[in-house]
Amino acid sequence: MIKGHRIERKISVDKFLDIIKSYTEEQIITTEHTFFRLNEEERKIFKESVLKEYLTSKVPILVGIQYNLNYAVFYDYDKQKALRIIIDIKPDKIKIVTFYLPEKSEMPRI
Predict the structure, then answer these.
(1) Which of 33, 36, 79, 102 is the most buried (most CB within 10 A)?
(2) Is residue 64 within 8 Å of 108, Cβ to Cβ?
(3) First to last CA, the chain
(4) Mean pLDDT for the chain?
(5) Which residues make Cβ contacts (< 8 Å) with residue 98, sequence separation at least 6?
(6) What pLDDT is attached to residue 2?
(7) β-pairing verdict for 94-100 and 28-30
(8) Strand 94-100 relative to strand 82-89, pairing
(9) How far apart are CA 11 and CA 27, in angstroms?
(10) What is the DSSP letter of 35?
(11) In 3D, which of 5, 29, 14, 12 has the Cα closest to residue 89?
């Protein structure tokens, strides 16, 4: 893994929720890069609206700030997998950089 993508420090879930609560769903945006890792089946499941719903209404299980200053936000997805959403928080918007479904056993221990 590239150092910039590794988590430098953990932040509390409460602090993260406090940071993002002031953003509206319209201020959360995706890019072409957001969905580039997905196969056709995953593209049917993971729409922009699903990712926004996680960010606006679900409580993460782990939040860290990566060396590249993006946030890595982990949500409980199913028994074996977590949903890792990488976001770039700007003063006026939150950009969803990318996301994927690592095994829970592969979650960082920070």
Answers:
(1) 102
(2) yes
(3) 16
(4) 90
(5) 33, 34, 36, 37, 86
(6) 67
(7) parallel
(8) antiparallel
(9) 22
(10) G
(11) 29
Is residue 7 within 8 Å of residue 64, measured between CB atoms?
Answer: yes
Looking at the chain, the number of H-run helices and the number of E-run strands are: 3, 6
Taking Cα atoms as reference points, which of 59, 45, 54 lies closest to residue 87?
Answer: 54
Give the model confidence (pLDDT) of 52-108 as tens digits.
Answer: 999 999 999 999 999 999 999 999 999 999 999 999 999 999 999 999 889 999 888
Say how many C-beta atoms besides its own lie within 10 A of residue 60's C-beta.
22
CB 38 within 8 A of CB 104: no
pLDDT at 1: 55
